[in-house]
Structure formats: C-alpha cells, structure tokens
Specification:
- By secondary structure, this protein is an all-alpha fold.
- It has five helices and no strands.
- It binds cytidine-5'-triphosphate and magnesium ion.
Length: 165
C-alpha cells in the first residue's frame, strides 16, 4: 500500500525552496551588506565605461556569498550551497558587466536581466555539478522574477534600496 503522502506537493515545494533560498539569501545579503570598495576598483573597460560600476562591491559579493553559502549548506549540503551562492553572485556581477556595455548606468533597469541573472547562472552552475530536475528549474524561472520584484519593492519601502526595482 502506498501512503497518501506521495500525493502531497510538499516534497516538491520543499525541493524548490532549498534550490531558491540560497540564491535569494545571497542576493539579499549582497544588498544589505554592500557598499564600500567596488569590485572593479573604479576601472574602466575599453569602451571607456566602468567595468562593473559602483553597485558591485567586495562587501556585497563576499557577504552575499557567505550568507547564501551557509543557508545552502544547512538546507541542501555544502557543495550545493556554495554552488548556488557563488552562481548567484557571479551571475549578478556578469549582468552588471553586460549592462555597462549596453550603456546602462548603475541602477538603471534591464528588464528580465535584473530579475533572472543570478537565477540563470546559479542554475547553470548547479546543473553542471548536480542533477537539476526540469520541473524545479521551470518553477524557479516563474517564481524568481515575481519574488525579485516583490523583494525590491519591500527593500524600497524599507528605504534599503533607492529604486523600487
Ligand atoms: N550590491 C553590492 N555588491 C554586489 C551586489 C549588490 O554591494 N556584489 C549592493 C549594491 O549596493 C547595489 C545593491 O546591492 O546597489 C543592489 O544590487 P543590484 O540591483 O544588483 O545593483 P544596481 O545598483 O542596480 O547596479 P547594476 O545596474 O549594476 O545592476
Ligand atoms: Mg539593479
């Protein structure tokens, strides 16, 4: 006899939660702890624009990576946690590099890129080392832009962020 628990979605929801939480924590803590010395040290790319801009700092990157990594470690294991946290932080940095090349100033919106940069990178990193179920990936792909918008609105209303996106 199979148990009725097989038919409840909690297992799936928990798996999605474990996959997303380390990324969201990494991103949130980068915002909360960010500031100070920029990762690009103020340097410019060959197009004359900043390599990354003042929105990517050492404190944000390291703090986000550590907090996201710890949450990931507790929820799904050390390797998984470090993979998801580093993927998120690097994805966000890569997006800033692209934004500067597209002549967008720091903080200017890049719809979808801003919401999904960290998610796509973290998913890619994760899927190289671990088995990522397509259902989990697609659920995160839908949930993440919505969570990102809500999170940023919240950060704006709490005056942590000076723009609501
Ligand atoms: N932050 C940071 N270091 C990081 C990531 C984020 O210090 N590695 C902080 C910065 O204070 C940044 C804020 O979190 O301004 C919000 O992050 P994000 O929206 O990614 O940066 P933007 O300021 O919008 O800059 P960009 O246009 O480059 O995305
Ligand atoms: Mg931004």
């Amino acid at each position: 006899m199979t148990t009725s628990t097989n038919y409840y979605p909690w297992g799936f929801i928990y798996e999605v939660f474990c996959f997303l939480a380390p990324m969201y924590v990494a991103n949130s803590f980068a915002l909360l702890l960010g500031g100070g010395k920029p990762l690009d040290l103020g340097k410019r790319f060959i197009d004359g624009r900043r390599l990354l801009g003042d929105g990517k700092t050492f404190r944000g990157a390291i703090g986000g990576f550590l907090f996201g990594g710890v949450v990931g470690f507790l929820l799904c294991g050390l390797g998984e946690g470090l993979t998801l946290a580093s993927g998120s932080i690097l994805g966000d940095i890569f997006a800033s590099f692209l934004k500067r090349r597209l002549k967008l100033e720091r903080g200017e919106p890049a719809p979808l890129l801003d919401q999904l940069d960290f998610y796509l990178f973290a998913s890619l990193f994760f899927s190289i080392a671990y088995d990522l179920e397509i259902e989990i990936f697609l659920t995160g792909l839908i949930v993440t832009p919505i969570s990102h918008l809500i999170g940023n609105l919240l950060a704006y209303s709490l005056k942590i962020k000076d723009r609501p996106y």
